[in-house]
Amino acid sequence: MRESTAPSVEQIASLVENVLHGNSIGKAIELSDEQLEAIYLLGHLQYQQKKYEVACKTFRLFVLLNSMDRRGIKALGSSLQMLGQHKEAIEFLGMAFVMDPTDPSAAIQIAECLISQGEKKKALDILERISFDYGRYEKYIKYTEKSNAVIRLLKKYGE
Question: Are 67 and 47 in contact (CB under 8 A)?
Fold first, then answer.
């Protein structure tokens, strides 16, 4: 007869206790940093190969295991965006932006999702805010140039 591999009540209680004390699930089940990084890199490779559905699943696993890693959250949002699941993409991209507001790329992606949903006015507000907040800093030039280009297109072809 096959031995049961189901976790015991004590193991589940220990996992929950670990997570409640601020540990990620990945750390609570003793995954190494290298193992977590391998999952992220696999998702990144899948995304680069335009295998967005499988990349989305891989990044969901990564986020489940390592919920405070902004890269995984943003990557999941990007995968969802590429799959046309804009509402859910906005949620993850919003989390990524809140986690690091010094990187406006997630906010630009949110604007792109809003445009895809027909919410051009909201997108325009976000893009104008990016141009205003980041436009005076040289290191953000590529983001403000992109924001300004999309703003011009939205204004030219109607909001």
Answer: no
